[in-house]
């Protein structure tokens, strides 16, 4: 899903006012009759729930509204121009950015940091049909007819229209979802999304399979929940290692996090592994992700969290019981065992809908 885009918007200039005098049969110069220019079109953003990514902005990056028509003779008012509507997905945050970032490589950590400190938030297009004038069209100039007075019957003044606003924008899509699925790489986050929804994300037995968020809708008793599956969290994500923490913004609007853990292959490879080894590994993994959530801020670590251990079929019931106990005393809450691969997710569904 494309979640960042840069576009240029330019509202229309106001039309120029007209300098003109009436043509009369017996007078060289009749009274002034130059009309006013029309208004330039605005550029208006409109949130639309039928769009789910910023992909369209790969193809069109410049949005220029029409200039107002010039005024005419005989006091003819130039035509006001239509506004230019730019549709964006619901959940798009719009930032004005300095010129220097228009072509800059945003994947570079220093560039992004600098951008964060100089960009200016204009609007959060948080609801369907929300409209926002992002660039105002210029007012038309007055024609010379408007400048007539008792002392000046032949005014030569007229105005140019006001120039329409122009801006460089960064569009950032923060998905709107109820539930975020997080965890270390390869624990089965995308598999879980697939098990709970009709989404069909890429799943593979290596880390960083998911590079952009995947969305799905889970249904139960007529009630829908929107889930978002994000890339794996890595230790020190905040220091810019791995793919960086930028994807975490997609969790900001959720109310619940499903924190997925899974028994590590190293521990399982030893057939005589102790439950203690496994619970320690799970707790260790848990804490890595919690630390990153806290560092990211934005309220992520305060959200309701359901802790699940995936790949349950790899651990027998007796061991699961012992691990439950150890984890409960450490985390202060129970964990839910599931198997995303074999669609055993019922206890999680029950938790999600309470
Ligand atoms: N045994 C077992 N394997 C599973 C289960 N769920 C997922 N897997 C496997 O775990 C591997 C990783 O699954 P993904 O769903 O891609 O994991 P992810 O957390 O989305 O990974 P990233 O996107 O790379 O962070 C795949 O090989 C899956 O087939 C499960 O319940 N049991
Ligand atoms: Mg994944």
Which features does this protein show?
rod-shaped, Spo0b-associated Gtp-binding Protein, Chain: A, alpha/beta, single chain, 354 residues, 19% helix, binds magnesium ion, 5-stranded mixed beta sheet, binds guanosine-5'-triphosphate, 6-stranded mixed beta sheet
Structure overview:
This protein starts with a strand and ends with a helix. The protein is an alpha/beta fold and 354 residues long. The strands form 3 sheets. Strands 10-11-9-12-13-14 form a 6-stranded mixed sheet, sandwiched between helices. A 5-stranded mixed sheet has the order 3-1-8-5-6, with no helix packed on it. Strands 4-2-7 form a 3-stranded mixed sheet, with no helix packed on it. Strand 10 and strand 11 form a beta hairpin. Helix 4 packs across helix 5. The longest helix is centred in the C-terminal third of the chain and has 22 residues, at 275-296. The chain has 2 domains: 4-173, Spo0b-associated Gtp-binding Protein, Chain: A (Distorted Sandwich); 179-352, P-loop containing nucleotide triphosphate hydrolases (Rossmann fold). It has helices at residues 109-118, 189-196, 265-269, 275-296, 317-331, 346-352; strands spanning 4-10, 43-48, 62-64, 84-89, 92-96, 120-125, 131-135, 166-173, 179-183, 214-220, 223-229, 256-261, 304-309, 336-337. Bound molecules: guanosine-5'-triphosphate and magnesium ion. Residues 189-190, 209-210, 229 line the site of magnesium ion.
């Amino acid at each position: 899903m494309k979640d960042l885009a840069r576009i240029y918007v330019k509202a229309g200039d106001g039309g120029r006012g007209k300098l003109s005098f009436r043509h009369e049969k017996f007078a060289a110069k009749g009274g002034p009759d130059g009309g006013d220019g029309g208004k330039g079109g605005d550029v208006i953003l409109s949130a639309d729930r039928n769009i789910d990514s910023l992909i369209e902005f790969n193809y069109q990056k410049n949005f220029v509204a029409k200039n107002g028509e010039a005024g005419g003779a005989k006091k003819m008012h130039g035509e006001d121009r239509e506004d230019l509507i730019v549709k964006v997905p619901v959940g798009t945050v719009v930032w004005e950015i300095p010129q220097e970032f228009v072509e800059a490589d945003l994947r570079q950590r220093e560039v992004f940091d600098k951008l964060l400190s100089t960009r200016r938030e204009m609007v959060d297009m948080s609801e369907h049909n929300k409209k926002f004038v992002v660039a105002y069209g210029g007012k038309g100039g007055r024609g010379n007819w408007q400048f007539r007075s008792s002392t000046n019957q032949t005014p030569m003044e007229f105005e140019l229209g006001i120039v329409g606003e122009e801006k460089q924008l960064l569009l950032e899509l923060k998905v709107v979802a109820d539930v975020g699925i997080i965890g270390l790489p390869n624990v089965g986050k995308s598999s879980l999304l697939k098990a709970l929804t009709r989404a069909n994300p890429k799943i593979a037995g290596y880390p960083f399979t998911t590079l952009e968020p995947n969305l799905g809708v889970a249904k139960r008793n007529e009630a829908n929940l929107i889930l978002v599956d994000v890339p794996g969290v890595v230790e020190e994500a905040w220091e810019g290692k791995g793919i960086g923490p930028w994807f975490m913004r997609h969790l900001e609007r959720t109310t619940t996090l499903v924190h997925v853990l899974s028994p590590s292959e190293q521990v399982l490879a030893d057939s005589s592994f102790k439950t203690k080894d496994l619970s320690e590994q799970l707790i260790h993994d848990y804490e890595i992700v919690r630390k990153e959530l806290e560092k990211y801020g934005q309220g992520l670590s305060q959200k309701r969290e359901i802790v699940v251990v995936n790949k349950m079929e790899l651990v027998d019931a007796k061991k699961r019981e012992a691990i439950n106990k150890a984890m409960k005393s450490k985390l202060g809450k129970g964990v839910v065992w599931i198997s995303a691969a074999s669609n055993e997710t019922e206890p999680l569904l029950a938790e999600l809908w309470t």
